[in-house]
Structure formats: C-alpha cells, structure tokens
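re the bet — no i am not wrong, look at it urself. input seq straight from the record:
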Amino acid sequence: MTPRILSLLALVLGLAACSTDVSDGNKRDLGDFVLGHNIVVAPEIVKGPLSREASTDDWIASVKGEVQKRVGRYDGDRMVHLGINVGGYVLAQPGIPLVFAPKSALVLLVTAWDDEAGGKFHDKPYQLSVTEAFSAKGMLGSGNTQSAEEQMANLSKVAAEQIEIWLSQHAECMRDDTRGEAARACWTRVDKEIRDRRNSGQ
C-alpha cells in the first residue's frame, strides 16, 4: 500500500483537486442515513515528500471530528457505519512565493457498512484525494500562510464534505426500503453511472 499512496500523493500534488474551500454547510439528501460507528484508522499512514510532521493520533482525531460534525448531523432511520483509513498526507512547508508555493494534500480510503445487512455496500473502498487549489487569493500556498495544524484542520473539513457528497450520490441506496442485496446492487449501479459520466466528460 505504501508505494501506491506515495504515487497518489505525488499525482494529486500535481493536479487541481478538491479545493480547501467548503460549502455553506446546508444538508444534502442522504436518503434515510444516520451515522453509526465513525471509525478512523491509520495503520500505514505515509508522510509525503517535503511534508511537515504530524502524528497519527492527531490525524485520526482531526478526520474523525470533522466527519462527525459533517455527517453526524443526519437523523434518518437507516444506520450506516463508516470506516476511514488515512492513507497519506502532505502538510506543506514554507517555500518561495510565486516560485515554489507548496501545497498540502490528504488521501483517504472510505468504506460504508450497512448495519441492517451486516456488510459493506460496496466491494472496493472509495479513494478520496484532497489537495488545496491555487487561486488569486491563495497564490502563496498554505505552506507560507498556515501552520501544520491549520492545514490539517482544513483538509479534514474538505474531506468530510467530500464524504458527505459521496454518500449523497448514493442516497437512493440508503433509503429504508432498499435493503440487503438490492442496496448493494444499487450502490454498484450508481458507481458505474458516476464512472460513465466522468469518462464521457459530463
């Protein structure tokens, strides 16, 4: 897993991925979702190139707390457990503005468990990559403007919102009348639709 995470960190640092801006916090349609267990682990966490140090416990606490705030707000009847693996991170160090403006990044693997069925909704974990995006406001990069703790908090907030968006994409699969194998089949179908739209550029 370690070489794969390193490669992914290098890739996302070279791309404009999910911005570190978050939305206004309005709730989305998550079907009948209510958060059960919010389990965050980091057994093989990888510190990316040129990153500041951060402890595994701090990452676990940061991600767990933001996910609880974001998706713990829902009060449906369909209990869903989340398992989140913090795979790797980069907390940018100070650089030379406009020449070397380092970015921060976070890679997570997320699994949703259906409490009613006693199993996962999906076969493969959802791979989530978050990196800050440059803007006219943020040309200095977070390495020059934020502490490691601030970068960690911002990345965790964005990751929590991206998990909420991912769940909302599968809202129909988490309604209380979609159960067992029907729920898994629904999740597989929605995943295919998402891939097809992405591949077609929609």
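see?? The helical segments are 2-13, 56-71, 142-145, 148-169, 180-199. told u. also Strands lie at 33-41, 46-47, 78-90, 105-114, 119-120, 126-131. so pay up
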